[in-house]
Amino acid sequence: MEERGSPDGDPAWNLEQGSERPETPIQVVLRVRPMNAAELRRGEQTALHCSGTRTLQVSPPGGGPDVAFRFGAVLDGARTQEDVFRACGVRRLGELALRGFSCTVFTFGQTGSGKTYTLTGPPPQGEGVPVPPSLEGIMQRTFAWLLDRVQHLGVPVTLRASYLEIYNEQVRDLLSLGSPRPLPVRWNKTRGFHVEQLRVVEFRSLETLMDLLQMGLSRRRKSAHTLNQASSRSHALLTLYIGRPAPQQMPPMDPGEPPAGGKLCFVDLAGSEKVAATGSRGELMLEANSINRSLLALGHCISLLLDPQRKQSHIPFRDSKLTKLLADSLGGRGVTLMVACVSPSAQCLPETLSTLRYASRAQRVTTRPQAPKSPVAKQPQRLETEMLQLQEENRRLQLQLDQMDPKGPALRGARVAWAQRNLYGMLQEFMLENERLRKEISQLQSSRDLARDEQRVLSQQVLELQRRLLSARSLHQRDPAPAPPCSCLMVPVAPCHALPPLCSCPYCHLCPLCRAPLARWACPQREHHLPQVPGPAAPAGLPLSARPPAWAPPCSPGSAQCPGERSHGDWTQARGWAETLTGEEVVPSAPPLPVGAPKTPVLKGGVGAPNLAQRLEALRHQIGSSLRRGQGQPPASKGAQSPKDVLPPC
Ligand code: ADP
Ligand code: MG
């Protein structure tokens, strides 16, 4: 038989060539099986005659006018399996599936009319006995063709398969690892009707796919009755999923989204049967009723789909699992091929006529083929969402940056103009700018942290200087004898940020700024080292926490500077300095003493001093002056050294 597929008169041909038509009719081919041995034995007559390659003449046995039916192709009993494969147009569907369309091939007809034979060949003669290659059906031949086609495509393609049956209105997975159990059929907007928890197996070779087919065929429900010794008692759907990998730069698909790519589904329907004719009883009868009900629902849907007012009418796809799973193929976005199978026997004429009527009506049903949106096609929408997110992030970062850096707004402007050129450019631009802003913010944050650290160190120094000033005053009041001059009195201030080191007795700490020994009182172990200097006894009843810290200046009995009576202003002032410098509350190392009138002069250039350097200078100045007064030295202004260049004695 000559291969079909000519552009003439085949509306779906244009689909294959790329000019997608808004509406494509279901393609129908008719296969008339040869008379079988039993029919010949019974001397049954044929009522069907092929006229040309597309028309079938039906001659009623009792006389009467012939009825003609025209299909895409009519294949009589003499046609081989290979002829059917080449003529039915399944390769066109394979091509469309490779291009991302959802395609369905299904066989339709009375029980025993050759549906299963057309799709998969004769029933296996034994477990593990393969069908002879010459008798292989449309499915095996399409598998071989598709695998070969994929190999020659030159692009990576993922191939997966699922196989299910609808038996007594229950969906069962024929590839499940355990015993088949009913699976739910669900609907959602993206996927339409689909079976949940269905096992989908990836395969790379024809052998694997053939094994999957054999596995499914062997698990499918079959029974023997009068008209068919291996009658399928279920509708079986084998689906091949053809996936093309998404381009690398594309974002990943959303989880739960069906894989982009085409589908090629083979549906072997169970045949309609007259229970009286098949002699079905018991379970067989129940199965037959269930099969007939779902086929009735299918016929009803096809009738309604032919209604010119169909846009307004409701198509009851939900009436059966079969119509649910074929909804897309019949009235949706799929491309569909129906192979109607009939028996030539005049005995089966009523069922044959019924099949022919349905088949000829089905070819007037149209679908709107549409390739599932690939990641590339979805990209603009995804880009848009991503762009909005990036814009939002960008705005937030910009705000943050503007708060930290007042020059920020000037950085935009020119970039925006460039970014408006196109969507991709814009996205790229936002990503770059976000990256830059993130870096800038992290730099600013680290320099802020550095500044804070520095502030902390400086404030500690201020506290230390304050402490020394207080101790110097205390010393001079207690011991008017001149103290040995500190070497650092005559040297410029070293830029020293060191904190006081631990005691290096017998006599001293080191000065944190000049490293000269600190005053005796500063040593926390002075009681051991300098017994001649009386230590400050804790006032009776004074809680330990209220005792002066180890570094506090000693006091002589009755002194006004005794810790118990120490001016609150002395403490709060030092704390105020530190708080001013750090901007944070400074937790005192000892609890504040009771508030009292300040008995020591308030430091000049204190809390309101314009900057740290000035404050430090003022402190040094005061300390220097105080010491000179105590030592009877002339004021620094009269000496060789300026007050700012001296440090308090240690
Ligand atoms: P259905 O699936 O429609 O119920 P089957 O495909 O099982 O029918 O076919 C019924 C019987 O007819 C099987 O034994 C099958 O081998 C045989 N048969 C069907 N079609 C052909 C054909 N074209 N050539 C030879 N035998 C066929
Ligand atoms: Mg069958």
From TrEMBL:
Q: Which PROSITE patterns match?
A: KINESIN_MOTOR_1, KINESIN_MOTOR_2
**Domain Kinesin motor, first and last residues per copy:** 25-365
Q: Which residues form a coiled coil?
A: 427-454
Q: Is this entry keyworded Methyltransferase?
A: no
* Family label: Belongs to the TRAFAC class myosin-kinesin ATPase superfamily. Kinesin family.
Which Pfam families does the record match to this protein? Kinesin (PF00225)
- Keyword Coiled coil belongs to the record: yes
Q: Which GO terms describe its molecular function?
A: ATP binding; microtubule binding; microtubule motor activity
* Cellular component terms per the entry's GO annotation: microtubule; microtubule associated complex
Cited SUPFAM superfamilies: P-loop containing nucleoside triphosphate hydrolases
Tell me the superkingdom of the source.
Eukaryota
Gene Ontology biological-process annotations: microtubule-based movement; mitotic spindle organization; spindle elongation
Listed A to Z, the keywords are: ATP-binding, Coiled coil, Cytoplasm, Cytoskeleton, Microtubule, Motor protein, Nucleotide-binding, Phosphoprotein
Q: Which organism is it from?
A: Sciurus carolinensis
Query: Protein name, please?
Result: Kinesin-like protein
Q: What is its main location?
A: cytoplasm
- Localization: Cytoplasm, Cytoskeleton
> Which residue intervals make up region (Disordered)?
1-21, 620-650
**Which residues are recorded as binding ATP?**
109-116
